[in-house]
Specification:
Aminopeptidase, two-stranded antiparallel sheet, single chain, 37% helix, 8 helices, 7-stranded mixed β-sheet
């Protein structure tokens, strides 16, 4: 069922009860609500980084920024690729989440080589919950590096819930699990009571702790 015109405030209230919008396709103008029976989450204190990726992060070569190219990041997430010919991000999604960004609720993590945006992710922060929306890569491992930096930032800022919505094989490698809707809602309610801070910059030691799998 098509939803009525959606506002940023309505979107935040939907997130607070565990519901989020999607489109069927990039070119479909309509949106629908999603409330998965099994919800994907990435436990922040049980995050796993594959050994090869640890070396890649430690070797450097990729510059990571936060909230410096939100619109470019969400537009890149909406692009079709050979591996992802269809996406669920349409123009209404882009407009709504860009509004949330300007209101301080939506955030992006970007990866750069020289001045080229090569990967990143975006999502929504409320209380101690971060709702991961989408990620993209134009170079190998770029979105994974963004995810590692996101986890370090969330842990440094006092977050307790990283919602991935669904589970993919890619996310399972990092420790993502599925939990029932009822359990998710309980965790969400507790996380929303917390006073976390997304803009807390993680120290190098925080990133190293994520790479090692430590808390």
């Amino acid at each position: 069922m098509e939803m009525p015109e959606l506002t940023p405030d309505m979107l935040l209230r939907a997130y607070a009860i565990g519901v989020f919008p999607m489109a069927e396709d990039r070119d479909d103008p309509d949106l629908f609500w999603v409330d998965p029976r099994m919800r994907g989450i990435i436990p922040l204190n049980a995050f796993h980084v594959p050994r090869r990726l640890r070396r890649t992060v430690r070797n450097g070569g990729v510059r990571v920024t936060v909230d410096s190219a939100f619109e470019a990041t969400i537009e890149a997430c909406a692009e079709s690729t050979e591996l992802r010919p269809r996406t669920w991000i349409n123009d209404r999604i882009i407009m709504l989440y860009t509004s949330l960004f300007h209101l301080g609720f939506a955030h992006s993590v970007e990866c750069w080589q020289d001045r080229q945006l090569i990967g990143g992710l975006y999502g929504v922060a409320m209380g101690g919950a971060f709702f991961g929306e989408s990620m993209f890569s134009r170079e190998s491992d770029a979105s994974k590096i963004a995810l590692i930096h996101l986890v370090a930032r969330l842990r440094a800022g006092g977050f307790s819930l990283l919602d991935s919505q669904f589970i993919t094989r890619h996310l399972r490698r990092f420790g993502a699990v599925e939990i029932p809707r009822g359990e998710y809602r309980q965790r969400l309610a507790e996380a929303l009571k917390q006073n976390a801070e997304f803009m807390t910059t993680p120290r190098r030691a925080d990133i190293e702790a994520v790479l090692r799998g430590g808390v």
